[in-house]
Specification:
Layout lengths: L1 E9 L2 E5 L3 E5 L18 E10 L4 E5 L1 H10 L16 E7 L2 E6 L5
Antiparallel strand pairs: 1-2, 1-4, 2-3, 4-5, 6-7
Length: about 110
Amino acid sequence: MIEGKIVSRIKGGLNVDIGVMAFLPGSQVDIRPIRNLEKLIGSTLKFKIIKLNRRRGNVVLSRRILLEKERESSGRKPWRPWPKGKSSRGLLRTSRIMGLLSIWGGSTD
């Protein structure tokens, strides 16, 4: 893990200063895609080096890997199966072959 400051936006991602200039691909900035990468310029964040080519001077970073590990270690799972025998009240919105979409709390907005 290494700390660096996001310096500028370039095609496909961001330039990060970690003592040398490194590239942070747009797909590796966060777990979900970020539309406005410019808002991160000037931020100091932690990254993981995923590719290093000393001969060419290329360094590629990832923040996404660290965020995914953090999510795993917190024990939070994005989708949990519904406990067998447990009931709840809500509005069933649609039923499809792949599963159910329901709204909890009775709102139909």
